[in-house]
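Researcher: Sequence recovery benchmark, item below. Answer with residues only.
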């Protein structure tokens, strides 16, 4: 957990500087949301959410998503996941992926 905090303290200023200076990339829709790397990001988001909240959500599929490339890649995904009762609900996850690590910034039911 400490490494995630340190990483975010390093990367967030870099992202902020990129945005302020106008070198940020445009957020674009992800055309193939069933691609392996997109599903890996979605599963990471669910696993992180489960460990932080003691939920037991199970990945079903990625419904839609956007990707923005800055000094890292920011994924904004809508994910279908099953809860303990077997009901499938949609969740919005925002994940930042750098060369070394992933960080879950938000995970909420939509």
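Model:
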């Amino acid at each position: 957990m400490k490494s995630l905090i340190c990483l975010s303290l390093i990367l967030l200023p870099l992202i902020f500087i990129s945005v302020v200076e106008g070198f940020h990339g445009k957020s674009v829709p992800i055309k193939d949301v069933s691609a392996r790397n997109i599903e890996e990001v979605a599963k990471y988001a669910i696993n992180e959410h489960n460990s932080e909240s003691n939920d037991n959500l199970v990945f079903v599929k990625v419904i839609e998503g956007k990707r923005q490339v800055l000094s890292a890649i920011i994924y904004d995904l809508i994910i279908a996941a099953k809860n303990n009762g077997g009901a499938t609900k949609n969740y919005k996850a925002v994940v930042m992926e750098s060369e070394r690590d992933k960080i879950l910034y938000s995970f909420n039911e939509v």
